[in-house]
Fold each of these.
Amino acid sequence: MKHTQFDNSSGKSTKIGSVDEDDSPNPQSSNHGSAGVDILTLDQAFERLGGFSYFQLWASSLFIWAFTTGGCLAFAFSMLEKPPKYLCFNKDGTTYECKADQTFCKDPSIKYKIDWDDPTSLHNWVESLDLTCESASRIGMIGSMFFVGYMSGAFTLPRISICMSRKLNLTLVLICGFGFASLGRAAIGFLYMQEMTPDKYKTFIGSFAQISIGITPAILALYHLYITKDWLPFQAFSAFTTLLVTISIIALPESPQYLISKKRYDEARKSLETIARWNRYDGPIDFKFKDEDQALLQSDEETYLKQNIPYQDANKYESANDQNQNQYTTSADCDTLQSSRQDRIKLKEPNQNNSGSIKEILKQKQHACNLFIMITVWIAASFDYYQLNFQMKYIKGDFFTNILVAALTETIAYIVSGYLVQKIGIRRVLIFCYSVSIIGGLMLIVFQDRSQGYLIPFSILLARFGISAAYNICYLVSAVIFPTVFAGTAFGLCNLFAKMTTIFSPIVAEAAAPIPMISYCLLALVPCILANFLILDGIEEKQDKNKKRTEIISEIIPE
């Protein structure tokens, strides 16, 4: 397709080159603009600088480690709050296994001791914080406070990331408390990492980051089984390495995708220069970005239209644009087609330069609907995922076996979910994952008293697989469903509502069985239904709008 540059002084047009409309990231076939300057998408630019090379390897490793260390506290709650094995004394001096809330907490005259020979008796917060006789609701509040901090971050940090650079914002939040900074790792850090990664590696890197989090409970279980029962050394190590990650971020450049979305193209090229040095690329970075080229064409062609069409027709043209902008919040980009040696105008609709605010999202029916559904999907995934984590200490069977089965299952779920998203689509994979989690939850209700055999581990496997896969998909598809300019706001809103409800998951986990698993199943059922209504294409509607606007312009400028 040929672009035409308009000469405003003469009212004539001059071809400046051929621009391929295909956005496929083929670095060998770049487009060319005026003066032979290459016009590339960001993904093509990444491929030219070496693709997934030294910089991407270092940045991805850095953030993946940050995700892992962040999980060292979030996933340790079931071990940090697990009561040890108590032995109460009979009058004859013999002992029997007892529960604190049913014996010596009610009757202080009953003598007891902790069975430190039992592998599940850990030196954790029950001992350090004297939680032995605390009520279940008070113990649940410890985990809830983590999500209060997370929710505070979800309310502010992703929205700030739209106005403030990804790099600076991420540095600030990692210095904050674990709960507050967890949003920096989970949302802003994840977006930053994905924006620095070529498209064809994003699913793999995103899934690998989630896998690193998923194996954290297994590492903690093996640590307590074979190294020490003391909780402090491991948590001190994770806190120290988080500090190292914070310092390392100083060497990273700003996200070029963020800069391009803000039309700061020169700064985006400087960011790519830093990436090029890391990747040992010595070639010039003198290309233009496709968005940048389209913005220049739009400016030239709209000026030509205003100067060369009658006043009343110009009003009609502007009215058509205004109506379309209210529908899609996009700006008109004029693309010319050479037909019978005369210029015929066809209008396209790239994203308008907007603030990415909640108001902008709600103006668009498709994004507003998807936002509501994704908030529901996030709420169910987050609440059920963490509730299952907190409840692990109460599920019958061997504690460490259940933890290891859950961690292994979660790792497999992260690998499989990324593959399933590409093969069967977002709607179907969400329905499948939540259905599997519901089946696992129902089995845990039915077989809750079976402490022997494989029924409990198998039930945990299904429940954990389904909800872990759904949680991973939430991260993988959010950047796909929403445009870049809305991604930070949408991510923040989903996290905000998810963590607002997840505040209560530790408290629900402390309730008597089968209440926790009933709530688990009911909550998973809602997104299983709503996922059918996700609007993932919108292509026909958009093409119809393009056709309508093209017909209006055809009336103004006949062939």
Amino acid sequence: MLLAVNQLLTEVRLQRLSGVRGRDRLAAAERLAAQAAPLTQRVVRAASLLEVADAWLDDEPGKARCFAVQARELVNETSAPNVTALALAIEADAAMKGDKPKPECAYDLTQRAIKLARQHRERTTDPILRATAMRDRIRVFESATSAALAAGHLACALKAAENQRSALPNEPPLDLKLVQEALGIGELAIVYTWLGADRLLVATVERNALQSVSVPVGLEALSILESFSTHLRNGNDRGWEFIPKDAELLDVLHPVLLPSLVTSRLTSAQKLFILPHRSLHALPFSLLRCGESRLGLRYPWTTIPNLGAIHRRIPVAGGRGLVAAGIDYYPDVEATVGFDGVAEEIVERHRARGLPARRLTEPGVCKTFARMLAAGELDHAAFLLLACHGTSAQGDVPGESFLQLGSERLTADMISASRAPADLVLLVACCSGQRPVGGMGIQFWPGDDLFGLQAAFRAAGARQVIGSLWNADVGAAKTMAGVVYDAWVKGADAAASIQIAAVELCKNAFHQNNYEWAPFTAVQFGMKA
């Protein structure tokens, strides 16, 4: 009996993960609860009742609340913290959906749920159970974000949303006071958080101000987001061929991404920290219109994995060393003639400044670089340059996202298991700035964790990474690499270096008209210690 119920529970959970709603979902959940009712295993019975509660939530929030309360009464916080947290989240959602929404009640419920969700991590190896547990945790944080926002507690809403973001091991909960104190005058953080399938929370964080607006996202905008995010879910060897007409689609997204709240703050901004969420990671924010210009030409900007990156300190390589590798030819793919020359030129410039530099050349670049990573020989390399072929983010197997160094691949798994505490990693490679947002049969993964090459270099200790969202033009990429290096060696960070390079590339009409300057983006994991 228990085995049959667990099998049905897995099927019903899969429906929820896949977004199935309506009568079929409700019928399956009620059948599950009926079969589980005679069991002595209270956690299984409670989990079954929660599936019924979730199925009723949209149409009958009162019923949903009753089933959630029943589930919570079957267990306790100690024996089943995950079940209790999800029950509280559903009760909170029900409180917001009734004829008379009760935001303060919902807020109180989700604050209790958050404490439990933070404590619990599902240790099972079953992929469905792990995915469900993750989805349930994110559900708690989503409910908490919405409830806090409705209750007028913006700071609490941002803290709840931060739990969905990628965090370093043992990273403490978000302290907004530290974030605001770390922001300089003229620095603006723009935070995006999905509140549901068609509503986006857009918040601005400044040294002395915290504001937000909830923005509805129409069907046309959602369709455009889906077309962009496909490239960060279904990786292939051909990469992403961006066409100039795609830039026009961003005009539809402009009122969603840059509502009046944001544009009013941009007038005094000097540097931007942008925190996307899920599908928004696929967008070239550089191409958003800012008056007669574009955002990437007007402002130095960088993405960040979470708000903590604004005040977090990261120890980087103590010296000013540089390691560079450029690949011109490959066994089975198109040549990138000139990349080796760029690496050679940058190494020579660095040495001319009296600074240590090493250039890796074929054959055997990949093996040499991998050996240096594993042996800790990059501990004094503050600047890493890898100019080569790349590929789209591998959503089904994020650890296999790779850089093609000659005849061999340098994978994300190889990098993350090594040490490379560079201040800046410059990846002159197609699609190397992508981060997968879905895969393994799931359109968008729960939460907003960091995967792929960016995550790998973060795990290896890098502070900043520059990569390309789509297939980069070789000529533009070579120019960009030289300009970024010159700016960095003079003290500029990744955000400023990218802006300087974009402005330089736009002096060439072909690069400007075909947006060859726009794919290069930066991610910053923290401030320099």
Amino acid sequence: MKIKAVCEQTGLTDRTIRYYIEEGLISPFYTENYLGRKNFDFSEADVAMLKDIAILRKFGFSIAEIKQLSQHPEEAVSIIQRLQARKQQDVDDELSMLSVLKQLDAEKTHTISELSDALATPVHPATLPDGDTKAGTKQALVSLTRSLLAGIIGFLPLIFLLINISDSMRTYRYPTVNLWSLIATILTLLPTAWIVILSKCKAKRPVKRSWQLTILAACGLYLPFSFVLSYSVLGHSQTTDIRNYCVLDSECPANRSDFYQELFPDWPHYFVNEKQKDGSFQTRYLNAHYCYRFFQGLDYTYDIYAQWPLEQDAFHQEVARVKALYENAAETDTFYQVLTLEQGPYTCFIRYCGGQPFQRVNASYTYFIFAYDSKNLIVRYILCDSLENGADQPYYLELDW
């Protein structure tokens, strides 16, 4: 039987019945939704017990006394004696007031206002004590507060996730999903998952309040981590399509680097148009490579890499151009170091700050690298920059040297 029908049969309010349940006078079966609202199912025995409790309450038995009678019927005599004593005291008090009223009536004439103040409380049939409904209101507020907290804790990670996915889709040119994105999504939504699991468990069987509060507290403390982790979901922008050459995200710091603009050619060299015997031209695509990736979290990291072959004259012109660029940087730079070294078949011009080139790093870094292979006439342009304090490694270490 639902609580509404029980209210009609017993004359008790919803709040009063919930108060009696909270005090442990009855224990009906219930299910609980994800907001913490309990839906009770009362048996005939529960209804009969509520009717008995209502009668006892009208006669002045306290909640503690009713609970004591339920658990220890042998103490009924002492409980009744105490109630009789209280009722006798109430009668004595009423008689004393009646005596005072008779004296007032006999001594002088009172105005309507004076009589109204003296007789403001009329005689009513016995009713339930006010404390029942007041306590019920308190319990309802506690339940509502717990439900609101569960709803907030459950929905906030989802909101964090949706906001950052939307921001990533709007900010990044090449939003990318990888394994870390999936892991970050799962970790971000852990509080939501726990709230849903808690709700499902409570729907099947009661969960101790201490466990509910522990789970809510743990999920609440985890919310800052959910907020930070949500930035890693679709937080990467990556492309290997050379047709996107040097088309960067607006937030990428390379856009503000003059040396990057001078080092990387304006156009990629990944095809040539060859003239055929009949006078027509045919496009031949070269063995060119390109990779751009950008991550913006609390700090940023990005890599830009391009490689292609050149014809001999163009190759020597390009090497001479870049060599002059690095020589000028060596004379004028006060922040970056400039060096030349051999790495396999490549000669490398390097302008950098951070760890030594071609070694793993454990701090922030910036590397501008131009590498050329004189035998195969191949040139490489590389920029790796990070403020992640060694959380990642520069992309050029992944290349085949």
